[in-house]
Amino acid sequence: MRIAVDVSPLSVPPTGIGYYIRETTAALAAVAPQHEVVAVALVHPREAARLRERLVPLPPAVARRIRTLPFAPRWRRLANHLPLPTLELLAGRCGAFVGSEWLYPRQRRGVRVAVVHDLIPLRHPEWTTPPTRRMHLRKLADTRRADVVVCNSAATARDVVDLAGVAAGRVRVARPGVAARFRAATPASPPPCGGRPYVVSVGTREPRKNLATLLDAFALLRREQPDVALLLVGARGWGRDDVAERIAALGLGADVETAGYVPEDRVPGLVAGARAFCWPALFEGFGMPVAEALAAGVPVVCSDDASLDEAAGDAALRAPALDAAALAAALATACTDGPERTARIARGRAHTAGLTWEATAGVFVTAIEEAAA
Q1: Superfamily of domain 2-177+356-372
Q2: Residues whose CB is less than 8 angstroms from the CB of residue 36 and which lie 6 or more positions away in sequence, other chains included
Q3: Tell me: the pLDDT tens digits for 11-61?
Q4: Can you tell me the distance from the alpha carbon of 187 to that of 267, in angstroms, rounded to the nearest whole number?
Q5: Has this prediction a pTM greater than 0.85?
Q6: 186: how many CB neighbours lie within 10 A of its CB?
């Protein structure tokens, strides 16, 4: 069977969704050599070079079919909404197609797979931009027509059934894997923060990530552990970015390092060298950075929202997302050497041992084969 996967979102710097697409596509070729896997994209000519660079980690067994057109976003919208089967014009004849929010044209035949990472535009529209809401809600209408709907967590799967009205029998859960580079990570050299012990947080700076509360918690932590610094890794997202303003107001200018977007090969070292990882997000689909930090052997402090239960398991220290004092207390525990810190590290590695991209891809293959049969 020929399985086509839309990789168009990798034409922009990848974050969680981009990594999920790329790593799942790579693993499909490894776990299902009996099938032909094709990476499909429709992008602007300027985006094509960046996309091809980000597809380099894919094994040679994964074919590339990259279409380039001026005004590619308009062509994608047209392809997505035409009531005609246009997939075959882009990808050729396919036995299955795995779409994304970027590209989901109608197809003449074969299994149709939709992937849902979260339903934040439905649950919390205030945490999304109008263009993001429009894009996701348009895709959600197509999701209801899919033969198989793959979700990145059981929490997202429940939302797809309860909020989107998709029949439970068509829904599968394929949790993200953890890349080997995190399991084998060693501290970055030279170390960040001038060599001081540090807490790290990795994620795009946007309202849902709740960095203001993290900064408040860090200010409290420094009263108990004044030698600890804070490293914020991640590009600026949307909405008012008041991180610099908050740092100045709290008098933390000498204690917080903002690294911006960091290439993916550098992130594991920055995480592995930290005393603790903090993820106070208000809501997630899964929370890949939480699982990655646990796999790297770093104690994790994250919010107690149920959307992070699967990523955190029994290893992370949990606190209410908006309770800076509780987050600070958890961080103090995570940063202090002792039996609890040691036990948390061991539980983190054990919890994430089963989170592999091969397991993720296996869910896709099984679901596609069952639907085709």
Answers
A1: Glycogen Phosphorylase B; (3.40.50.2000)
A2: 1, 2, 3, 63
A3: 988 888 999 999 999 999 999 999 999 999 999 999 999 999 999 999 999
A4: 10
A5: yes
A6: 10
